[in-house]
Design a protein that fits this description.
The chain is globular, with a radius of gyration of 22 Å. Helices cover 26% and strands 25% of the residues. By secondary structure, it is an alpha+beta fold.
């Protein structure tokens, strides 16, 4: 009986040690494949990148471009147009703004590098439904207040305790007729260090 107990303990300890070793060796790979790492493969800091929807089966399969890392985001809902940008606060706050607002639902979130959600907003809680955030530490936000145009009443300050993070935004396409407006909105997104920042101008004007 004692021999069996000792045997079970030894097997358990060996199993735990093996699991521990596997986890240690897997950590670098897992770190590279978190959201931050995958977004890093799509574009540099402060660049807005698109995240395409993926369907892996069926006649309406949406396939990624050859060599694309976008297939890593299989959780993307194809009913939404999704985009993201990574940012650093090392040199000051970052302004995230769009020069065009669609008449449809959108939501955006700020995450730290490990993927913890620090802030969320949508078109209903934004000022006049406009996407316009100033993201920085408490000290950076205070220092930047004097630099923001007094007419920018839509700018929402977002205080975060981090040095690097990323923003994701999802825009609903509930009708195909609204897709051009949604694409225009995504195309106008800017994610840049505070300064003379203006959103990218849309390439096409809205009909009507």
């Amino acid at each position: 009986m004692i021999a069996r107990l000792l045997y079970a303990i030894v097997v358990g300890l060996i199993g735990a040690a093996l699991v521990h070793i596997v986890v240690i060796f897997a950590m670098p790979h897992l770190a590279e494949n978190n959201a931050w790492g995958r977004f890093a493969r799509l574009g540099p800091l402060n660049e807005t990148v698109r995240v395409e929807a993926l369907r892996s089966a069926g006649p309406d399969t949406i396939a990624p471009m050859p060599g694309s890392d976008r297939h890593d985001f299989a959780f993307v809902d194809p009913a939404f147009v999704n985009a993201s940008c990574r940012f650093s606060l090392a040199d000051g706050p970052v302004r995230m703004i769009a020069s065009y607002g669609p008449t449809t639902f959108w939501s955006a979130s700020i995450y730290d590098r490990s993927g913890d959600n620090l802030y969320s907003i949508n078109d209903r809680s934004a000022v006049d439904g406009i996407f316009d955030l100033l993201v920085g530490t408490r000290e950076q936000i205070v220092d930047a207040n004097a630099d923001i145009d007094s007419g920018d009443d839509t700018t929402i300050p977002v205080e975060v305790d981090l040095s690097e993070g990323y923003m994701t935004i999802r825009v609903l396409v509930d009708e195909e007729s609204k897709r051009p407006a949604v694409e225009e909105f995504i195309g106008s997104l800017a994610c840049r260090p505070l300064g003379p920042v203006t959103a990218n101008q849309p390439t096409a004007s809205r009909d009507g």
